[in-house]
Structures are given as structure tokens and as C-alpha cells.
Specification:
Elements (H helix, E strand, L loop, with lengths): L1 H19 L22 E2 L4 E2 L3 E5 L5 E7 L7 E9 L3 H7 L8 E2 L4 E2 L2 E2 L5 E7 H11 L19 E10 L4 E2 L4 E5 L1
Parallel strand pairs: 3-12
Antiparallel strand pairs: 1-4, 2-3, 4-9, 5-8, 5-10, 6-7, 10-11, 10-12
Length: 184
């Protein structure tokens, strides 16, 4: 009986010490229970379905798709879509600024071609699977790993991930969540 009481007392001490520690969170340590909201949230407004990420449908072989981004009206105006990338390393390529692998790369000037906004808090990106195929040929299948053909397995559809860098009128840059284009 005495051994059980000692074990129970040790368990109570252990439980008490576990909850008595409090971690101090500052700007460098995000509190795991605090909401992590962006200063300027970006919304994708015209997706077909939402499956953790906005998904758009494009019909093979040349299907067009349009992606519209929006920010709250009181947060400013979107000046342009500065960079667009795709693939597994798309986010890294977007951040490092590797121009040769950008989707909106101009081979004549070796630079990204910005997609201008319309002076409002929304901006639209329009493309098609033909353009993606040309991009895939230019950068190689190692960078653009997805072949834009219809999947034979409905449980694993063919999806192309797109990443965007938006620039606001005041120079602020935002990388919104990735967007997927599903080939049908």
C-alpha cells in the first residue's frame, strides 16, 4: 500500500510540474494556439472546388483557366502579378527569383513579364494547358514534373501547382497560397 501511495504522489508531482511551466512567446516564437493570420490576406475568389487549396479545372489538351485574387479593399490595390512558378520547387524558385524557371519568363529579355493589375484590389491570371506545355518543354520535365494529360486514375487526378508573387501599389509583396489546376 505504501508503494502505491509513493507512486501516486510521484505521478501527481510529475503532472503538476508538466503544467506549471509556461513558455514565453514573442515575435520569433509563434504561439501554437494563437491564430496565425496574414497582415494582408489574399483570397482566391473563383475556384471550382476547395480541397485544402483552391482547385481549378482545365480540359485537356488545351483548356483555359482563370484565377482571380483579391485582398480586402482597405489594404490597398494590387499593382501586378510579379512572378509565377509551378512544380515541386515552385515556391523556392519564386522566393529565390530564378528567372529562367519562371512561368511568366520572357525569352527575349530573360526576365519575368509582370501581369499588370487594373488599379483595384483584385487581379486575374489567365492561362491554358498549351502555354503550360510550352513552359514544360522550355524548362524540362525535371522542373515542371506534371504532364498535362488526363489521369486514368480518378483517385489521383493530374494537378499542376501554381505559385504567385503579388506586388501591391505600395511595394509590399505577398505570396498567396498555392493554387492547383486539375486536368480533365
Amino acid at each position: 500500500m505504501k508503494k502505491h501511495l509513493i507512486n501516486l504522489f510521484a505521478l501527481v508531482l510529475l503532472a503538476g510540474s508538466a503544467v506549471s511551466c509556461k513558455k514565453a512567446y514573442d515575435n520569433n516564437n509563434l504561439d501554437p494556439l494563437a491564430p496565425s493570420l496574414a497582415d494582408i490576406p489574399v483570397t482566391v475568389t473563383n475556384f471550382n472546388v476547395f480541397e485544402r487549396f483552391p482547385v481549378f479545372f482545365a480540359t485537356a489538351p488545351a483548356g483555359a483557366f482563370t484565377i482571380t485574387f483579391s485582398i480586402p479593399a482597405d489594404k490597398g490595390k494590387i499593382k501586378e502579378i510579379t512572378k509565377v512558378t509551378t512544380g515541386n520547387n515552385g515556391l523556392r524558385d519564386l522566393q529565390t527569383g530564378a528567372p529562367a524557371v519562371l512561368y511568366n519568363y520572357n525569352t527575349a529579355t530573360s526576365a519575368a513579364v509582370a501581369i499588370p493589375g487594373n488599379g483595384s484590389n483584385t487581379i486575374t491570371f489567365t492561362s491554358d494547358l498549351d502555354t503550360y506545355t510550352k513552359y514544360r518543354t522550355r524548362v524540362g520535365a525535371g522542373v515542371a514534373t506534371v504532364n498535362p494529360v488526363v489521369s486514368t486514375n480518378p483517385q489521383a487526378p493530374t494537378q499542376i501547382e501554381y505559385y504567385f508573387l503579388l506586388t501591391l501599389d505600395n511595394g509590399t509583396t505577398i505570396i498567396p497560397e498555392r493554387v492547383r489546376v486539375r486536368v480533365q
